[in-house]
Amino acid sequence: MRPSYTLVAFHAHPDDEALLTGGTLARAAAEGHRVVLVTATDGALGLAGEEDGRGRDLAAVRLAELHAAADALGCARVVVLGYADSGLHGESDHAAAFARADVEEAAGRLAEVLLEERADVLTIYDANGGYGHPDHVQVHRVGTRAAQLAGTPVVLEATVPATAFRLALRGLRLAGRALGRSAPLGERDVFTARARITHRVVVRAHLDAKRRALAAHASQRRGGTRVLESLLRLPRPVFALALGTEWFAQQGAAPGTRCPDVFSGVRSA
């Protein structure tokens, strides 16, 4: 009988879990592992349709969507740390904005979950926070420190190859799409160099679950040209090509490591 493990996925806002790691979480759950989703903020500053409200109203909508997406992915538990959304450029002046939270305090709260769950693997973001959102950068800092405090053996930075993302940004800008300018740290500091990526996880068998999780975040499909809505409109073969693989860089792994499974590091320990 294959051993089962516990995977804790730490994300910044509702919908991040589906975009970067949805297939991996669904695959782990389907294979009998325990999947725990931890989300730092309420997502209250995300763009949304008028019918979704603003501030607290939008936060309530997005947290309900988060739980629906987690159900679609097979997550056994959802933990919301309760910090405020900092905004794409850190514009929030909220006292509890996650980007300005004390790293040691926030890491201690996450470490409690890791210890309680006896986590084998923690997923966070790379040092760039992917595309530079200050809350995503803070996920990297807090998650890295929490794993140290809890002694979590494997820390994986959810990411994509940087070159591919830069090309996508350029294409969007050429097409006149505002999303082509949505990298607060600048185009050079996005995601991860391909040489640093250690895990290439094929999730094509779990794309129906990933699609349902993306669709659950209905508020993030309204209010203008939205990434989620564009992805969900893709024909299935194109959707599979675009989202059928998820990438991670394992902290401390030897250069050149190539793993097909997020639990490879635990099994080889």
Automatic annotation (TrEMBL):
<dbReference type="GO" id="GO:0016811">
    <property type="term" value="F:hydrolase activity, acting on carbon-nitrogen (but not peptide) bonds, in linear amides"/>
</dbReference>
<protein>
    <submittedName>
        <fullName>LmbE family N-acetylglucosaminyl deacetylase</fullName>
    </submittedName>
</protein>
<dbReference type="InterPro" id="IPR024078">
    <property type="entry name" value="LmbE-like_dom_sf"/>
</dbReference>
<dbReference type="InterPro" id="IPR003737">
    <property type="entry name" value="GlcNAc_PI_deacetylase-related"/>
</dbReference>
<keyword id="KW-0862">Zinc</keyword>
<dbReference type="Pfam" id="PF02585">
    <property type="entry name" value="PIG-L"/>
</dbReference>
<dbReference type="GO" id="GO:0016137">
    <property type="term" value="P:glycoside metabolic process"/>
</dbReference>
